[in-house]
Specification:
mainly alpha
Length: about 100
């Protein structure tokens, strides 16, 4: 579970850094500061949504990777929680109803 958290934090920070560097000087870009890029990155990796879309090709490629990473992390997190509940039920069979 800690591994998923570390991967998520690294993905968010790396995604924000690349988005910021590729978008900050592009005309018409809505992600011009690092805090905006960080907020966008959190929204992308948590699959909640984004506040503004990247306008550069690099930004769009990073966005695609962030979305895929987010879906994978949600799946891994859900599987880890399900595994925890199943294993705790198997260790304590009297708690089954």
């Amino acid at each position: 579970m800690a591994f998923v958290g570390v991967v998520a934090v690294v993905a968010v920070l790396a995604g924000a850094a690349v988005i910021y560097n590729s978008e900050r000087t592009h005309a018409g870009a809505s992600l011009r500061s690092f805090p905006q890029a960080l907020w966008w990155s959190v929204g992308a990796v948590t699959t909640v949504g984004t506040n503004g879309d990247p306008t550069t090709t690099t930004g769009r490629i990073v966005a695609s990777l962030m979305f895929i990473t987010g879906v994978a992390l949600v799946g891994i997190f859900t599987a880890a929680v399900a595994t925890y509940f199943i294993s705790s039920t198997m260790r304590n069979p009297k708690s089954r109803s």
